[in-house]
Specification:
Blueprint (H helix, E strand, L loop, with lengths): L1 E7 L2 E6 L6 E10 L2 E9 L26 H13 L5 E5 L6 H17 L5 E5 L6 H10 L2 E3 L7 H7 L6 H22 L12 E7 L6 H14 L4 E6 L16 H16 L22 H8 L6 E2 L5 H5 L6 H13 L5 H8 L1 H6 L4 E2 L5 H11 L2
Parallel strand pairs: 4-5, 5-6, 6-7, 7-8, 8-9, 10-11
Antiparallel strand pairs: 1-2, 2-3, 3-4
The structure holds iron/sulfur cluster (SF4).
Iron/sulfur cluster (SF4) binds next to loops.
Length: 380
């Protein structure tokens, strides 16, 4: 039996077993395609020989540390997965010895799982400086793999991670190897149900631990999505941890992380370029606390209103509040019949969203006046 012992934000903890064989496992409620997916998210070990300046598990810090025995972690994962309490495992680690030792142990967990018939989701963090043979294995066994960039450039990476290895050698080289391995496994087999990095490659950067401005994160994000083809760039807002060199630094406000995510989705899914954000950030390179797509639309009145019956998918995507799903709804609706009245738009998108996009859209034919009248009567 697994018992929930406490819940905090997106985390909760399950206690398993009894007295002599008790384990507490951290469950993280990850968001995937609009759904909440519980993952057992843990470090293989929290013992670390490194001293990254922001980290709770840096070597110099006095903190309770533990290490999973690989077989035990695999057994707990499969047990919870069979019970339906988790949908997958997200495994990362501190670096207690050399990176290859950790990779070997992480892969032991994953191999145990796959050998026991586990075909759930596995997200594996590659250790900076890991040997290519481990990366090759990881890509075959896990559904998503990635290595953390931590910072958007080598200078600030060196500032906060002084002993993780060089940015180019320990991080970027590994990222390129992951990309190569993913390409080669995709050529081998298209018929994979799990593993083979089918959920792509990801990375994470810490926001607010350095002086990097938002535009630097946005530029790095564009490169990661467009040039390297990553599936996901995560941002982790910095929080000062006592007994670390950055304990007096201000935390990253949650809205900064949120606006960066919005900007990154505009780049990944909406065809925005980093250049577009030059007009949105302030003179210090930071995003305002507003939806960046809305700010862009207000800075570019010449792009609006767009004609709902003739606009391309990408043009519709430029409309504030419209994402790929709703852009497709508009296109599907107009395939059946032209959009002429606000009631058409309400049927396509629902009344709330239809009202929100009115300032940015128009319809082409002579009934436009009716459309406007309708707006005037019903909304304004
Ligand atoms: S290597 Fe990882 S766990 Fe160790 S101090 Fe750096 S960030 Fe923390």
């Amino acid at each position: 039996m697994a018992k929930t012992i406490r819940k905090r934000d997106k985390w909760y903890f399950l206690t398993l077993g009894a007295k002599w064989d008790r384990a507490v496992v951290p469950i993280y409620e990850a968001a995937a395609r609009g759904k909440c997916v519980p993952l057992l998210k843990t470090l293989l070990t929290s013992f670390c020989k490194n001293d990254c300046k922001y980290c709770a598990f840096r070597a110099e810090r006095k903190v309770l540390r533990t290490t999973w025995e690989p077989k035990k972690l695999a057994e707990i994962t499969i047990h919870l997965w069979k019970q339906g309490k988790i949908r997958g495992l997200f495994l990362s680690s501190s670096i207690s010895k050399d990176p290859d030792f950790i990779m070997e142990k992480q892969l032991e967990v994953v191999e145990h799982l796959r050998n026991m018939g586990y075909n759930g989701y596995i997200h594996l963090r590659i250790m900076p400086g890991a040997n290519r043979s481990y990366i090759k294995q990881a890509v075959r066994l896990a559904d998503r793999v990635g290595v953390n960039l931590e910072a958007p450039n080598k200078e600030t990476f060196g500032e906060i991670c002084p002993d993780k290895g060089g940015f180019k050698e320990a991080i970027l080289k590994r990222l390129y190897w992951i990309i190569d391995e993913v390409k080669s496994v995709r050529k081998e087999s298209k018929d994979f149900r799990f593993g083979f990095a089918k959920a792509g490659i990801d990375t994470q950067m810490i926001v607010g631990a350095t002086e990097d401005d938002d535009f630097q994160f946005i530029r790095a994000t564009e490169w990661l999505y467009r040039k390297l083809g990553l599936r996901r760039v995560y941002y982790s807002g910095f929080e000062p941890i006592p007994q670390t060199p950055l304990e007096k630094r201000k935390p990253c406000p949650p809205w900064r992380e949120y606006r960066l995510y919005q900007a990154s989705f505009l780049i990944r899914d909406y065809g925005f370029k980093a250049e577009h954000f030059k007009q949105i950030v302030n003179d210090k390179g930071f995003l305002p606390n507003f939806d960046p797509k809305l700010v862009f639309a207000q800075l570019h009145p010449e792009l609006f209103p767009i004609d709902l019956n003739t606009a391309t998918f990408n043009e519709i995507l430029r409309v504030p509040h419209i994402g790929p799903i709703n852009a497709r709804k508009i296109i599907n609706y107009r395939k059946m019949k032209p959009i002429r009245f606000i009631s058409d738009l309400e049927r396509a998108l629902g009344p709330l969203l239809a009202r929100r996009i009115l300032p940015y859209v128009q319809v082409r034919d002579k009934r436009l006046s009716d459309f406007k009248t309708y707006i005037n009567q019903k909304i304004l």
